[in-house]
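Aim 2 progress update. The chain analyzed this quarter is reproduced below.
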Amino acid sequence: MSKPEFVYVTYIETTPEKLWEALTSSEFTRQYWFGAEVRSDWKAGSPFALTLDGEITDSGEILEADPPRRLSYSFKHQKFEELRGEPISRVIFTIEPFGALVRLTVLHDGFVEGGKYLGAVSNGWPAILSGLKSLLESGKVLAIPRTALNKGFDAK
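Predicted structure tokens:
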């Protein structure tokens, strides 16, 4: 039996370097990740944090950083009580040139069978990545409500 995981593939009209910057720069993430900022020096073994409204919502460690091809970090949710007990998961971004486009594959795994976190991630990532694609291609972010991040579990 396979383990629960979330996989998302999209094609973006940009360069691998610009996509890498959008994934690792707080200036970019604030625009498409609903105001969230990523914090790290992006070196393997370094801490990672995602902050929203001055609060750490998720934290982890950089597992792999190979700019502009591959980025991976562990991911532990901190904000919602009902998700804090879930195990540490892993996010892998694979960036591949594809003609004039870039193919971005996001794999988020390490979930427990029957846990709530996979449902939250399965709704959050598409909203986040849609905003990322729109920002890189048009310079504008889609007006997706922040509540899209909380679908799939009962956030209080």
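The chain has four helices and seven strands. The first strand starts at residue 5 and ends at 12. These observations will guide the mutagenesis experiments scheduled for the next reporting period.
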